[in-house]
Amino acid sequence: MFVLELENPTYNHKSSYNDDQMLLHEAPSTVLVNGEAGDYPPMQNFESVKNVFYIESVKLWGIAAPIAFNILCNYGINSFTSIFVGHIGDVELSAVSISLSVIANLSFGFLLGMASALETLCGQAFGAGELEMLGVYMQRSWIILIVTCFCISPLYIYSTPVLKLLGQRHDIAEIAGKFSIKIIPQMFSLAVNFPTQKFLQAQSKVGILAWIGFVAFVLHIGVLFLFIKVFKWGLEGAAAAYDISAWGIALAQVGYILGWCEESWKGFSWLAFKELWAFVKLSVASAIMLCLEIWYFMSIIVLTGHLEEPVLAVGSLSICMNLNGWEGMLFIGVNAAISVRVSNELGSGHPRAAKCSVFVTIVESLLIGMLSMLLIIATKNHFAIIFTSSERMQKAVADLAYLLALTMFLNSIQPVISGVAVGGGWQGLVAYINLVCYYIIGLPIGFLLGYKTKLGVQGIWMGMIFGTFLQTLILLIIVWKTNWNEEVAQASERMRRWSGQSSDHEFDRATL
């Protein structure tokens, strides 16, 4: 008999963030079990377990599917850019992979982390019925992210000497640097894209994000073919297509907001320029946890560039990371969905529903991870053909296939647990865990295995897999020992304190 109780061993943890910053989304609806509103009853038979699995699956994928599809389409723009460049030449593939995986990924991670502050702020404002504040928060984020882009621009402009300093081969660094300069417009598009994305997600308007992403992805493939295959513009054509597609997505989202979000968009407001410093601090704090994770996987490309035959090593690893990224984008959607589910149920005072949501999501994610792992193993000698016609490169990719399969399996669990941590307000705790497992343990082990043994790129990857495994194991233990009743109490206290603060401040509409 399956019995899911809440009286499991407790785990008390404190986030390093200020409680006022850990705002929880107000649950948009109640949990319905056997026709009644409220928390789940204890599950004591298979029928009740099946019922909960069905309910939670519908709720989870109703949120995750459109977000994941949009992310997959956006990631497809990166992936197909590499695919087209891979058929130009191996050196060009390595250079563009370095540019996209290191330079562009660094700015992507930081800007996405900065914009993540809107997930909390816009969600709270929407739940409280203060729809006008969503537009104000979005405008503040635009201002902060655009300024951040100007601060990051020197990294793109001087990427060639930076990559050489990091030990990349000079011809690869030169090409990567020129390509990085040409994709600076794409970076600025993210300053518009991310805030509008969070603005729409807070209102559950995720369907439009999926459609915009799909149309942009299809058009991007056409533009790549036109610029590279027809016009023969080479890397310049790849960069131009990359910029055009990125800005197309950003402007389409803005257009939808201006035309179809009358209640939450009231025009440009002077309030966007108020309390910017507090908003900056919250944005930077939100970026730390995400950047520690994204840059960890970026660093494997940098370390690989120091090995013998860097073109072969970087190219084969980039192909594997590209495929791993496809699965990773799916689980970013799951990450966002479980974060919303946990925070909604904690805010609604449903500890058992929060726990059940976590359990169902982990089980379903594990099944997806196992399927991905088996698919990679079954096609290990063939999937590289999509990216390159070089037989040496295909052989190098096949040698890494088992590590790729294991990574995909781990990546089916880790984002889910991270999403639970975000939903429970444990960002500070996860940031410390990421720092220790990734940078103090994983990277040094990868360096030793890669450079002090004959394992090479496989050794580097093994070390990083160990860091990911350790981080996932620790978070699983924390989730297992969490006292969800205590989490509900903490969530209620935060919401009560925030509600008290909100009542002390009158929203002043000041439009331009």
UniProtKB/TrEMBL annotation:
One of its GO terms (cellular component) is membrane. Its main location: membrane. Keywords: Membrane, Transmembrane, Transmembrane helix. InterPro entries: MATE_euk (IPR045069), MATE_fam (IPR002528). Pfam families: MatE. The chain crosses the membrane at residues 97-121, 142-159, 208-228, 240-258, 278-304, 358-379, 400-423, 429-449, 461-480. It is found in: Membrane. It is a multi-pass membrane protein. The keyword Protein transport does not apply. Belongs to the multi antimicrobial extrusion (MATE) (TC 2.A.66.1) family. NCBIfam families: matE. This is Protein DETOXIFICATION.
